[in-house]
Write a structure and sequence with these properties.
Layout lengths: L2 E5 L4 H12 L3 E8 L21 H14 L2 E6 L1 H16 L6 H20 L4 E3 L4 E4 L3 E4 L22 E2 L7 H10 L21 H8 L7 E4 L5 E5 L22 E6 L4 E5 L5 E12 L8 E6 L7 E8 L2 E11 L6 E6 L2 E11 L1
Parallel strand pairs: 1-2, 1-4, 2-3, 4-7, 8-11
Antiparallel strand pairs: 5-6, 8-9, 10-11, 12-15, 12-17, 13-14, 13-16, 14-15, 16-17
Helix pairs in contact: 1-2, 1-5, 3-4
């Protein structure tokens, strides 16, 4: 049996994961990343929401579960480190891209800083309640419950650290996890899943941008695909590629946001066919297999909540190029593309361009 640092969020998934590890006989140490409390102003001028994954209530739930399971419990102050994620979020939107802070949180904190802390207390593994699986000792695979699969948000994990990870619920269906929470008599068995970005508690990220980057939201032109001005907007950051609702423009056919220019502060709208994505180029890549400049058949996802689509991938200098067999809808710069060989994650990166 091993000493395991368990990342506790206060939710049902990490609580059941901890219970399973304890049942197996591991020495499990619970760890909660304290990023700030619900309603508490952080050093970064934002607040953590009540329904996110990092609130004071969540910390109390995690502490209660650890006590019930006979585990040690520590709350680590990650406020300063978390500021890096908030800054990234704001900078990406201001640059006209669509950020994914949950992926960055996993890369930089959950499987970054926590690994350093694990070593400091003599823990051999870091565990979490993600719906993904470690197979053959060092391979990252999709979770058994494909409706909850979180392998996409783990693509950035250092290849050398996968062997130091444990994902105890990755082989389970969500309903099985809920049932186990009841069997273990855990007080969080019926706690709802978090649905929002923890530092955007009102789901209005424009308010956060205005607070963190005063003056960034400026009125600009809405254009058609011919470059004609057909309306005004209150900040390009308020729009995402593929958006249809809330455009404030009456047209004779459905239209979508198909492009944004942060320099000119314009938003372009057009028909759905303009959202077709055949190829993406991504930077800041992470390979979980040996890199290859030859084409590798794969499936790939350009958004978290879509099924992977067939295509191929290759390394091009310090980027990756992914070509799809069939056009995909709405690839957006700033989002991640993650590639698979069967259920195994082989590579991923941050989308720099789409065509």
């Amino acid at each position: 049996m091993a000493k395991v640092l368990m990342a506790m969020s206060g939710g049902v998934d990490s609580s059941v994961a901890a219970a399973l590890l304890v049942k197996e006989g591991h020495e499990v140490v619970g760890c909660f990343m304290r990023l700030g409390g619900a309603g508490e102003e952080l050093d970064h001028d934002v607040t953590i929401g009540h329904k996110g994954c990092c609130s004071i209530n969540d910390a109390n739930d995690a502490r209660t579960v650890c006590a019930k399971l006979g585990m040690s419990f520590y709350a680590l102050d990650f406020k300063d480190d978390f500021g890096r994620i908030i800054d990234y979020f704001v900078d990406e939107y201001n640059a006209g891209r669509t950020p994914n802070p949950c992926v960055r949180c996993n890369d930089w904190l959950k499987f970054g800083k926590l690994h350093e802390y694990a070593k400091s207390i003599g823990a051999e593994y870091v565990a979490s309640g993600h719906y993904a699986q470690i197979k053959n000792g060092s391979e990252l695979h999709t979770g058994a419950d494909l409706t909850k699969d979180q392998s996409y948000v783990l693509f950035g994990t250092d290849r050398n650290r996968i062997g130091e990870m444990m994902l105890p619920i990755g082989h389970l269906q969500k309903r099985e996890v809920r049932d186990l929470a009841k069997d273990f008599n855990l007080p969080v068995f019926n706690k709802p899943d978090s649905q929002e970005i923890c530092f955007v508690p009102d789901d209005n990220y424009a308010n956060l941008l205005a607070k963190k980057s005063p003056g960034c939201l400026k009125q600009g032109d809405v254009l058609d695909t011919g470059g004609n001005v057909i309306g005004q907007h209150e900040g390009h950051q308020k729009f995402t590629i593929g958006q249809r609702r809330g455009l404030g423009i009456a047209m004779s056919k459905p239209v979508y946001v198909v492009a944004k220019d942060p320099v000119l502060n314009t938003v372009t709208i057009g028909g759905e066919e303009l959202l077709n994505t055949n190829t993406v180029v991504a930077k800041d890549t992470n390979w979980l297999i040996d890199e290859s400049e030859d084409w590798i058949p794969c499936t790939a996802k350009i958004r978290y909540n879509t099924p992977p689509a067939h295509g191929k991938i290759r390394k091009v200098s310090d980027t990756i190029e992914v070509q799809f067999d069939e056009p995909q809808r709405g690839g957006a710069t700033g989002q991640a593309v993650v590639c698979y060989e069967g259920t195994k994650v082989i590579c991923g990166g941050w989308i720099e361009s789409v065509s």
